[in-house]
Amino acid sequence: MEYDGKFVILHRYPDRPDGDTWGLPAGKVDADEIDEQTILREIKEETGYNAVKEELEFLGDYVFGFPDLYLEFPTYRLKLKQPIDVKHKLDEHVGYKWVTGEECYAMPNLIRGFHDLLERTGYVKNR
After folding, report:
1. What is the pLDDT of residue 73?
2. Per-residue pLDDT, 25
3. Residue 53 contacts residue 36 (beta carbons within 8 Å)
4. pLDDT value at position 108?
5. What pLDDT does residue 127 have?
6. Is the pLDDT of residue 99 over 70?
7. Which of 9, 32, 70, 72 gives 20 to 30 Å between its CA and that of 23?
8. Where do the domains of the chain lie, and which CATH numbers do they carry?
């Protein structure tokens, strides 16, 4: 979710899986969903914004292999026409903030693969 050159990131509780890290609104695909339905649901659940399919721009399907985990990230951009009041899910996230790609990349506690995702999607130049 972008507005005015910044996008929203969410801070996970320390006691959650991948805790005390920052990441994008995201989640697992339910059995009866396609990727677009999942991201629309997750945006609503995690930010309170009721997005529609026409607002989504597909950026790519990115794969990350970690020793203990395989992740597939179908990635979308949603450019907002006006600022919104983010209503993050209090039982999942400590807080949120709006950042530029460079500000985000400089953060040490991003969720696994996020630094690489910022490079692959062009939000920062390859390092």
Report:
1. 85
2. 92
3. yes
4. 92
5. 63
6. yes
7. 32
8. 2-120 (3.90.79.10)
Q: How far apart are CA 109 and CA 19, in angstroms?
A: 9
Q: What is the pLDDT of residues 52-88, one digit of tens each?
A: 999 999 999 998 888 888 888 899 999 999 999 999 8
Q: 């970690």: which residue's tokens?
A: 66
Nearest-angstrom CA–CA distance, 11 and 19: 8
3-state secondary structure the chain: CEECCEEEEEEECCCCCCCCCEECCCCCCCCCCCHHHHHHHHHHHHHCCCCCHHHEEEEEEEEEEECCEEEEEEEEEEECCCCCCCCCCCCCEEEEEEECHHHHHCCCCECCCHHHHHHHCCCCCCC
Count of all residues that appear for the chain in the document: 127
**How many Cβ atoms from other residues are within 10 Å of residue 47's Cβ?**
22
Q: Are 14 and 109 in contact (CB under 8 A)?
A: no
Please report, as a single letter, which amino acid is at residue 17.
P
CA 24 remoteness from chain centre = 2
